[in-house]
Records
---
Amino acid sequence: METHVRYLARSPIFETEKAFSTDYPVDHVEGARRTNHEVDDRPVTVSAIEDPSYWKLDVHGFCILHAETHLDPYKKKREVQDAYWYEIEAILHKHFPQYSRIEGFDLTLRKRGPEFPAISRGYRDEFEQPASMAHSDYSQGGGFLTLQYCFPGQDDYWKDRDFDMLKCVTIFLTGVHKRERKEPDQRANDDVWRPLTGPTDDWPLALCDYTTIDIEEDIRLNDAIRRDLVGEGSLLHYNKAHRWYYFKDQGVNDLLVFRNSDPHGKRARE
């Protein structure tokens, strides 16, 4: 597939400012900006994944699971999220038995509006739009900020624990996956994506092979300013070495699992 990927430009502004963005209007504040991002749209080839078993989480930053799930997309999310979380948690326990505990803490619905991507910004109460810029939801520090927000008062509990964070979209699940510490403290963020209905080739998720990313030169930390918290993620600068992939005709029982970050930057992530 020949398409474009929206990267963050290597702008001189980042010599004096940290990258940031908001998800709500700030026009009422004099001199305020919603973001200091400059877009770098690049033509790229996004290849269809031919052999799902080839991709390894600890090598490429993502892997693909096939598992049966039951989710009624026509019910309100609060009516189905607990049962859905249980299914996702059971699937992850089966495929990643090293985790001793899996706990969901967020559920978000994404549905592309008819004006997207021509109009891609703006907060929606009904649903979020697909992400339009190459990114990772959590940086090394951003994972801890999310834990502090979602599990207030539990800093001592998570101290010196090894855990991952996962997410599933078009409904996406974010969770903490804690395992007993068997080596020096290492933390990572994993995501799990699946469509509500399928197969889907409308704005499919594109994944960049971690082995093609220069982590010293290509990654930019970004403050994600929300209505109720400030998080930190990572944005991607263009590099011609990047190799992008997508899962053609992804069905409701096809799950993309990928890692966002780890605190030491030593494990493959997406």
---
Amino acid sequence: MVDWSSLETVFLDMDGTLLDLHFDNHFWLEHLPARYAEHYDLHPQEAKDRLIPMIMAERGSLNWYCTDYWSERLSLDITGLKAEVGDRIGYRPHVTDFLDALRASGLRSVIVTNCHPAPLALKLRRTGLEARVDDIVSSHQLGKPKEDPEFWQDLQGLAPYRAETTLMVDDSFPVLESARSAGIAQCLAVLAPDSQQQARARHPEIPCIHHFDEILPALRKRSPLPSGR
């Protein structure tokens, strides 16, 4: 499923890959519509009927992920509202074991996320995730989402890598397809990003897992890279 022996770098998505996507799904589909209804004195269903199409229209763009964009467009403090349900932020199963095994293997681990810096900071405060990886890059630093094929070339400026020795792990099929098109040698899809929802169907071409325990044994057998990698 993964050829660990050929790798130097592992790029990791955050939401839905390392962290439970339930937090984000609950916020955008339940909490935000409820607070939007309160703010604008709307029936809850009317609020959803207004918000969901508005949000979905931005899917795949940087605006889809941009807290500043939605705060301005909705005249609401999106980061503040996210903090109201911050207790729902948490790791997916087996993630800390997987990250510990990555570190022990000597592989370089970099979170590559579309998450905006403001909610990213909230999630890091809640999880301490930054201490478990070598680096974190937000697509907002590059001005384009991971779905954009040009993202991967621009990423070289912040997290230099060799595509032929890199693995990308993500729960988004469009992101993984973008990474493959950019020459990333190995891609791996996560099928169960939200602990409160059923797993999705497999991608026809990209290897898939439900949880990291499926690939932990092989990773732990990998010999550490020599120092000075």
---
Amino acid sequence: MSRAETVPCKKYRRLQMLMFSLLGVSIFLAIALFAQFTTQGASKPTNAAGQTATTAPTQPDYIRNDADDPMAIGDIDAPLVLVEWTDMRCPFCAVYSRDTLPEVVTEYVDSGQVRIEVNDVSFFGEDSTAAAVAARAAGRQGKYAEFLTTVYANAPEDGHPDMPREKLIGFAKSAGVADLDQFESDLDDPTLAEEVAQSTTYAQQLGVNSVPFFVADGTALSGAQPIENFRQFLDSALANTQK
């Protein structure tokens, strides 16, 4: 993934300051929400390839553990799985993708310590669903992560961007999706829309009602936190896996 260059405006800085001022509350709520994860018995969502992966008995249901998962990056044998929930119209998801994710990938994924599994949700209406369907369509050609990076690199500094079909096709082209005709055909595949709906419902059953939202080794983190917070979060989780 490449890191997009951005020039924050004053309005964005005020928004970011507000977000960080609520950090303590966000973490508390995240932990409270995660308490539901181990008690929910919902059926698991499928990934962008339409697969429901077989999960190892020692892993929670929200970890797919599929070596061919197009919605995951990193070594299948990594000691830690970072599970992420995201909505492609979420401005804070875009901030995380641009400002923090590249560092997480460089420091933790490329070194083989962490695998990231992404879950898409549709929290902001039909355009969120359309964008998630498009990402899964790109995933069928091995470009799910690249599509997300492209979407978030082009996101506005605040608000929920519209996602018309023409824009989604443009994102696919920029992301390197090879067969655009197949991509357009897949945009109309009702199976993908059902997968997005299933993923959204499952997230809500787990207690995930805001994004971005992350879980690693049974601990939750909410919001577009800076890399320093992610280092602490992931280092603590990695230390637990070594006990």
